[in-house]
Amino acid sequence: MAGIGIVIAILVTLVAVLIPWLPTSASEEMDRIEFVYWFATVISIAVFALVMAVLVYSVMAFRSPPEDESDGPPIHGNTGLEIAWTVIPAILVIAIGVLSAFVLSKNGEAGPNPLNVKVFAQQFAWRFVYPDDGGLKTGELVLPLNRTAKFEMESADVIHSFWIPDMGQKQDLVPGIKTSILVTPTRTGVFSLVCTELCGVGHSTMRATVRVLPQADFAAWVKERSEGGGGGSGDKAAALFADAGCGSCHAFAPAGTTSEVGPELDTLVAAAQKAGQDPADYVREAIVDPGKVIAPGYQDGVMPSSYGKTLSPAELDSLVAYLTGAK
Ligand code: CUA
Predict the structure, then answer these.
(1) Helices 279-288 + 313-324 axis angle, to 10
(2) Which of 11, 72, 163, 306 could form a disulfide with 170 if both were Cys (CB 3.0 to 4.6 A apart)?
């Protein structure tokens, strides 16, 4: 029986170790979460191997011959065994619970100097604001290495969920309340932030790039972005198009986006001319009041009607110019 148990334990351990079930950790929080996974996995392997060893042994050793149709011997319980299989699993489950509570609490400690980042979610885009760095706004999440980032999150419409798989932490964004989560990156590189709550037709496109930079590079990035990036107005408009999340839903050749959630934008000027309208007025109305004219084949209510409020008049002008190809 011990031999069967050892063979099963080795096989299941190989399955656990050789298959990369989780992404390689890129945060302190993910390291702790992985530790909980492994703790529970080791216990599960031990219990599984024990149960299977007894089961397989019993099936082989106590098999009755085909012609034997008599009843088995009457057995009434075994107090020692029953106490053992109640107490041992209870201790193991409590141990997993205590460890999880410890990790959850540790993963909620921001430490003395967190980087504050506000996260705004709306169908189907992420936007980030860095209040410590002059209210810098971006559509990609850039984080310094080895410094805890504290995300204060709000949703403008429905429930979304913030998740960077390599960094483990996951938190819903719920309209009407503020939620928060901490992430301390331990690896530089490019990662993905994905929305992990079904939030509408564009849910699968609701992603943002996450870049983790060494602290000096992060400071340089903040400086460069705060000074306007040194680019012309066209560059600014392109950045605005990305930051406002337009590209998550719309294909637009100058921005290199290809999503098909909403109508493509390369034919806007032609559509305005066909409708006998000034292209700039036509585009402005489509951004501020997207429900007024719905392109054939698309649904009302998918594009947020909040852009008139979330974009400043200057940003709106710049976006209209960008979309109509005006200089
Ligand atoms: Cu937002 Cu799914």
Answers:
(1) 130
(2) 163
What does the DSSP 8-state code read for residue 27? B
In this structure, which amino acid lies at residue 195? Answer: C
Q: Is 127 in the pocket of ligand 1 (CB under 6 A)?
A: no
Q: How far apart are CA 327 and CA 319, in angstroms?
A: 11
**Which residue owns the Cα nearest ligand 1 atom 1?**
160
Task: Report the C-alpha gap between 216 and 77 in whole angstroms.
Answer: 68
Q: Report the greatest alpha carbon distance in the chain.
A: 94
Phi first, then psi: what are they for 198, rounded to 5°? -55, 115
Q: How far is the CA of 53 from the centre of ligand 1 (A)?
A: 45
Instruction: Estimate to the nearest angstrom the gap between the alpha carbon of 217 and the chain centroid.
Output: 25
- Helices 233-243/313-324 angle, 10° precision: 100
Dump pLDDT digits (tens) for 140-159.
999 999 999 999 999 988 99
With a 6 Å cutoff on the Cβ, whether 249 touches ligand 1 is no
Cα 136 to the chain's mean position, in Å?
Answer: 22
Reported as a single tens digit per residue, the pLDDT across 104-120 is 999 999 988 999 999 99
DSSP letter for 194, please: E
Which residue, among 192, 188, 193, has the nearest Cα to 218 in the 3D structure?
188
| Model pTM score | 0.74
Q: How far apart are CA 163 and CA 166, in angstroms?
A: 9
103 close to ligand 1 (CB < 6 Angstrom):
no
The answer, yes or no, to whether any atom of ligand 1 lies below 6 A from the CB of 197, is yes
